[in-house]
Write a structure and sequence with these properties.
The complex is a heterodimer of chains A (451) and B (372).
Chain A: E1 6-11, E2 32-33, E3 37-38, H1 39-49, E4 54-58, H2 64-70, E5 84-88, H3 103-108, H4 111-117, E6 121-126, E7 129-131, H5 135-144, E8 149-155, E9 165-169, E10 175-180, E11 189-198, H6 199-211, H7 219-229, E12 234-238, E13 243-245, H8 249-258, E14 285-287, E15 292-294, E16 296-298, E17 303-304, E18 307-309, E19 312-313, E20 318-319, E21 324-326, E22 329-330, E23 335-336, E24 341-343, E25 345-347, E26 352-353, E27 358-359, E28 363-364, E29 367-368, E30 371-373, E31 378-379, E32 384-385
Chain B: E1 4-9, H1 19-22, E2 30-31, E3 35-36, H2 38-47, E4 52-56, H3 62-68, E5 82-86, H4 101-107, H5 109-114, E6 119-123, E7 127-128, H6 133-143, E8 147-153, E9 165-169, E10 175-180, E11 189-198, H7 199-212, H8 217-223, E12 231-236, E13 241-242, H9 246-254, H10 259-267, E14 282-284, E15 289-291, E16 293-295, E17 300-301, E18 304-306, E19 309-310, E20 315-316, E21 321-323, E22 326-327, E23 332-333, E24 338-340, E25 342-344, E26 349-350, E27 355-357, E28 364-366
Helix pairs in contact in B: 4-7
Classes of the chains: A alpha/beta (451), B alpha/beta (372).
Chain lengths: 451, 372
């Protein structure tokens, strides 16, 4: 087969447990973002825009929505004759199968897949970052430097260095030392989790790492330190621009709110570097007389009668009269009846908020917590919700992708069509002041192991 | 499996919508914020289970080809059947002059007769409605009609009716009269120009027309056969927007600002598909003031918008005031501009401070790509 200069492997199997309710039913890369996207759209669009036409997507945790969303990759023009997108879940071999034990193991288990394309270089990506990056420039840099591995780095504020993997480099940008979450950092160049490896070099490293029982089979913890010890040529590729790891509810919320910034560095509206996604066929949204929408993003298929400020509204959302939504993220198919107020809340898809409900954490010391209301539930009329709200069901079920299915009525146009949840699954504070049980489902139940 | 094929037939005068149809066929006229007129008929067919659709095109069809491409967005990029775009094939005609749609049908008779389906629905491309063809086919079979003609309610005294066909039916629903360019007093049955019949009958009628030198489908195949064939009228009770003039285009566009009509036309018996543009969602700035309007994706709004329809990628700057207007794709309305009853075709830029005004029964049309 024709030799590929570079192909990409996208790690999309992580559970993203720090996203709590948001990843209760779907894998983190499939979490909706920015009004119409899913987190993985950014990485896949970067691949397409950078001219990378072969992408393996490694899935593991709750892959249904992610798999059906990616499909054959046509949304990103990745349905190709030679290459294209491949979804790669763990599978059973003759000697039995196992879950991906770590990021390096995930790649190692797909060695044959990569060999099939005989690439010179392999680009390793993760599916949970929001950024626009031209990988072809990084590849050029990697080739010019004749490196075995190139790691994309970004300058982070010095006070945050302890949260990242920090690269210490020499004047030639050659990496001399790698410190995972250092207390006293010597540099503020943080690894973005984007690597280009020479495939021959990486292949050997992966096989050696696989044979090492002491290894946790992780790129950051095992493979990269080992390559450094062996004095292989590893260089840092400095990236400047918007980049955000949306690993926590706070950073997810912030990244969404960043889109509202007039001079947002992400440049979402830059037509030369579009972010592609699966486009559900929906009509333009309708703004009724008397609606007021300020500093917000609104998607197609919505009907807005109330007020919206500093918020992100996904498709097919109905916002009734007298509603006040502030600083919030409202996901697809949510139906909000009249006189509801919502402040700093992430409302999951297809939730019905009944008349007069108030959702929002109380302000403490001028700071307000972000609340998450999970999808597919009913928030009762005139209730006051001051804590996270989830169905409390075991997370054995997965979210499907029905919003993108064509040919049918949009889900839940009328409130009576919403599936009612048994009341015991709702944790509602009817009156402020009652003890509140937080249900964030941090442990995620019976999902697969973290990648 | 639906045993019916669809034919979208474009037989239209060029000047229907003035400047808007000067650059494109009626079927490709942008409508409703992100659609082209043909999307409605095409989506209705697809949502009814029809998976073999032939589009007979006549002139200036580049924009339509660009819109439809492989038919993938309508799920019509198929191995078997799917979307067929059939340009006029003049060489097959006995005479060189192209006079009417039957000649076009005749030129592509092979496609029609070789299709596997027993029934055929033949429709124009300028009808805004949302319904299921399955009901019409069932009606057709039940009544044992030779031809079923769909009609909607309309006020036939309106000026627009002059370009329509009106029909009269007897008590059983059989069509007794169809007339063109003339309102039948008191008649409210406007033909939707959608006809269901067996394919064999269509082929027979086309051959007969050609052999006699006739060329107009409705005139020579339907009206002429009104007595000889059993033609039944099928009443579509829902919203019917027939776009045949600038006035009807403007009126039926603005009708979308009524939530009930918005819901019916976009969701009732299926979704309406169109070419995907991958626009990000629309952004409302701190000074945006938008009311009773339809806003498609990729817009950037800072100004005031009222009773208007904004297509994909429109920018309304701070201090601009757009009311009762339609701004098509990629339009830019700069600061201090006031628009009232204006239709801006694609990629129009209205520079700062301009004031443009049309009338509600005579909107001002700005040609595609103009900078004012």
């Amino acid at each position: 087969m024709h030799k590929k200069k570079c192909m990409a492997m996208l790690l999309a199997g992580g559970q993203g447990s720090r996203l709590g309710i948001l990843t209760q039913k779907i894998a983190k890369p499939a979490v909706p973002f920015g009004g119409k996207f899913r987190i993985i759209d950014f990485t896949l669009s970067n691949c397409y825009n950078s001219g990378i036409d072969t992408v393996g997507v490694l899935t593991q945790y709750k892959p249904l929505a992610l798999n059906s969303y990616i499909g054959i990759g046509s949304a990103w023009d990745l349905d190709r004759q030679h290459g294209g997108v491949f979804v790669l879940p763990p599978y059973v071999k003759e000697q039995g199968g196992e879950w991906y034990k770590g990021t390096a193991d995930a790649i190692c288990q797909n060695l044959n897949f990569i060999d099939r394309f005989n690439p010179e270089n392999v680009l390793i990506l993760s599916g949970d970052h929001i950024y626009k990056m031209d990988y072809s420039l990084m590849l050029e840099y990697h080739v010019t430097k004749e490196a075995d591995a190139t790691i994309a780095v970004i300058e982070v504020p010095w006070e945050e260095t302890s949260r990242f993997g920090i690269m210490n480099t020499d004047a030639e940008k050659r990496i001399v030392e790698f410190e995972e979450k250092p207390k006293e950092a010597k540099s503020n160049l943080a690894s973005m989790g984007i690597y280009i490896f020479n495939w021959k070099a990486l292949r050997r490293q992966l096989l050696e790492d696989e044979a090492n029982p002491a290894s946790s089979h992780d790129f950051g913890k095992d493979v990269i330190p080992k390559m450094l010890r062996e004095n292989m040529k590893m260089v840092a590729y400095p990236f400047s621009g918007y980049w955000k790891d949306v690993g926590t509810v706070e950073s997810y919320w912030e990244a969404n709110m960043d889109l509202l910034d007039e001079d947002s560095a992400l440049r979402l509206y830059d037509r030369s570097w579009r972010i592609y996604s699966v486009n559900p066929p929906r009509p333009p949204h309708y703004m009724a007389a008397g609606s007021r929408v300020k500093n917000s993003i609104v998607s197609e298929g919505c009907m807005v009668f109330g007020e919206v400020e500093n918020s992100i509204i996904f498709p097919d959302v109905y916002i009734g009269k007298g509603v006040k939504i502030k600083n919030s993220i409202i996901m697809a198919g949510v139906h909000i009846e009249d006189q509801v107020s919502i402040d700093k809340v992430i409302v999951g898809r297809k939730t019905l908020v009944r008349t007069g409900a108030q959702i929002g954490a109380p302000c403490q010391d001028g700071r307000q917590e972000i609340l998450v209301v999970s999808g597919d539930i009913i928030v009762p009329a005139h209730s006051q919700v001051t804590a996270n709200l989830s169905t409390g069901r075991s997370s054995s079920e997965e979210e499907d992708d029905d919003l993108n299915a064509g040919g049918s009525m949009p889900v839940k146009m009328a409130p009576n069509e919403i599936v009612k949840m048994p009341p015991q699954h709702l944790k509602i504070v009817k009156k402020p002041g009652l003890p509140v049980e937080h249900r964030t489902n941090k442990d995620g139940g019976s999902g697969g192991e973290k990648q | 499996m639906m045993d019916m094929m669809g034919i979208i037939n474009m037989n239209e005068a060029e000047d229907y919508l003035g400047d808007i149809t000067r650059v494109r066929p009626l079927a490709a006229v942008p409508y409703g914020g992100r659609y082209r007129l043909v999307d409605f008929t095409l989506s209705n067919m697809v949502n009814s289970g029809i998976d073999n659709v032939g589009i007979f095109i006549q002139h200036k069809y580049r924009s339509l080809m660009d819109h439809l491409r492989s038919g993938k967005e309508w799920d019509l990029a198929r191995k078997r059947d799917g979307l067929f775009i059939l340009p006029p094939a003049y060489s097959k005609l006995p005479m060189q002059m192209h006079r009417g749609d039957v000649e076009n049908l005749y030129a592509n008779l092979d496609y029609i007769s070789q299709s596997r389906q027993k029934y055929v629905v033949i429709s124009g491309a300028n009808m805004i409605c949302n319904f299921d063809f399955r009901e019409v086919l069932e009606f057709h079979k039940r009544t044992g009609a030779d031809i079923t003609a769909m009609y909607g309610e309309a006020d036939c005294d309106a000026a627009d009716c002059s370009k329509s066909h009106v029909l009269e039916t007897d008590a059983e629903g059989r069509v007794t009269d169809i007339r063109e360019f003339e309102a039948i007093k008191g008649c409210r049955k406007m033909a939707m120009e959608v006809f269901v019949m067996e394919k064999a009958l269509l082929v027979e009628m086309i051959n007969e027309c050609i052999s006699r030198g006739d060329y107009d489908f409705i005139k020579h195949c339907v009206i002429k056969n009104c007595q000889r064939l059993k033609i039944f009228g099928f009443h579509h009770p829902g919203y019917v927007g027939r776009i045949i003039s600038l006035q009807s285009y403007f009126q039926h566009s603005m009708a979308l600002l009524q939530p009930a009509i918005w819901r019916e036309l976009f969701f009732k018996s299926g979704l309406v598909y169109t070419k995907v543009k991958d626009e990000p969602p629309s952004k409302y700035g701190a000074t945006a003031d938008v009311s009773n309007s339809l806003v498609a994706g990729g817009c950037h709004l800072e100004g005031r918008v009222e009773n208007s329809i904004l297509f994909r990628g429109v920018k309304v700057h701070k201090g601009a005031y757009v009311k009762n207007s339609i701004i098509m794709q990629q339009g830019v309305i700069e600061a201090g501009v006031v628009l009232d009853n204006v239709i801006c075709d694609k990629s129009v830029r209205v520079t700062a401070g301009k004031q443009l005004k049309g009338e509600s029964n005579y909107p001002l049309v700005i040609k595609k790509g103009r900078v004012i």
